[in-house]
Amino acid sequence: MDRPSCDECIKGSVHKGQPLGKEEMIHGLNTYVIGNRTNPRGIIVAYSDIFGLPLPNNRLIADSYAKSGEWLVYLPDFFKGDPVPLKVADLLIPVDVAKQSAFTKYTGMLASAPSFIMWMTRHKEAPTNKLCMDFLQALRRATPPSQKIGMVGFCWGGKYAIRAGLESNMIEIDGAKVPLVDAAVGLHPSHLAVPEDVETLVVPVSYGWGQEDTAVKIEQKGKVEEVHAKAKGAGRKLPEMEHKVYKPGRHGFSVRGNPDDPMERACLEDSVTQVLNWFGRWL
Fold first, then answer.
1. To the nearest 10°, the Cα dihedral for 63, 129, 187, 154?
2. Rounded alpha-carbon distances, angstroms, from residue 162 to 5, 61, 200, 222
3. Residue 72: beta bridge partners?
4. SS3 204
């Protein structure tokens, strides 16, 4: 079911820094690549928020995952050259929101609404899901069995990172059914369908929720936990699940938080640690 997005998905801060990776074609998608290409411990696939590769924040996060030298990190352009334009980001996520008047903010949002709605119609759930899972299938088939794959998704991408771990998305390789990824992380995952997207997971998943997230309500955490509690009560064996809550945890806290605000900077940094700790454990 396609659900409308929200204003919170297009707010936040644009971060400073020079991304160090390169773009190349990986399994049919233009992909930002950074990290250990020779003997990586594993592969991390990142599914960005709606601003995609052009938003520096997304590339800088990929760089932070690769910094240790352990991981090969892929940030595919799952929007195929059609992310929400950065001109919308410049208007709606100004670096210094204090310098933006309420009039500019709301007239800008009204002006951008039609184009954003059109963008949503070009990225409906079914084709978006297929594009993601096709990429992961190709990656899994091309990756040696000894090498594990983790996936992390932010906001729009969170749903698909979690879905990658579903039993229904497993594929057959050499006569055995294998999951598309070995572990997943979903940070403020937008449009998550409960129970469908979480009920039959076969890989460990770590979730990051924001206490003050007005787009992905903190109540969603309880709904996911309830689904898994019922499954366990029915005798189903589930992989390990982890839930972390961030404060203030406004929507987009792991990508577009304000690094000049100590609490929001902590959310940015701690969410990177959450991802690396989870993959360090399971990959």
1. 40
2. 18, 19, 11, 16
3. 35, 43
4. coil
Residue 178 burial (10 A CB sphere; 0-12, 13-18, 19+): middle
As a whole number of angstroms, the distance between CA 60 and CA 16 comes to 9
Evaluate the CA torsion angle 64, 203, 55, 35 in order and state its sign: positive
Instruction: Output the DSSP codes for 74-102.
Output: EEE-TTTT-PSPHHHHHHHS-S-GGGS-H
pLDDT of the residue at 91: 56
Whether the pLDDT of residue 83 is over 50: the answer is yes
Distance of CA 137 to the CA centre of its chain: 18
Q: Is 150 helix (H, G, I), strand (E, B) or coil?
A: strand
Give whole-number Cα distances, 180 to 103, 166, 239, in Å. 46, 9, 15
Q: Measuring CA to CA, how many Å separate 91 from each of 58, 114, 121?
A: 18, 15, 22
Q: Helix or strand or coil: residue 6?
A: coil
pTM summary value? 0.89
Q: Is the peptide bond before 262 cis (omega within 30 degrees of 0)?
A: no
Buried-state track 17-48, b at ≥16 Cβ within 10 A, e below 16: eebebeeeebeebbbbbbbbeeebbbbbbbbb
87-146 confidence digits (pLDDT tens): 775 555 543 445 444 544 544 554 556 777 888 899 999 999 999 999 999 999 999 999
| Percent of residues in the chain assigned helix, strand, coil, to nearest 5 | 40, 20, 40
Q: Are 24 and 33 in contact (CB under 8 A)?
A: yes
Largest CA distance in the chain: 61
Q: How many CB atoms are closer than 10 A to CB 202?
A: 20
Q: Where are the alpha helices (DSSP H) in the chain?
A: 56-66, 86-92, 102-122, 125-142, 156-163, 219-233, 262-282
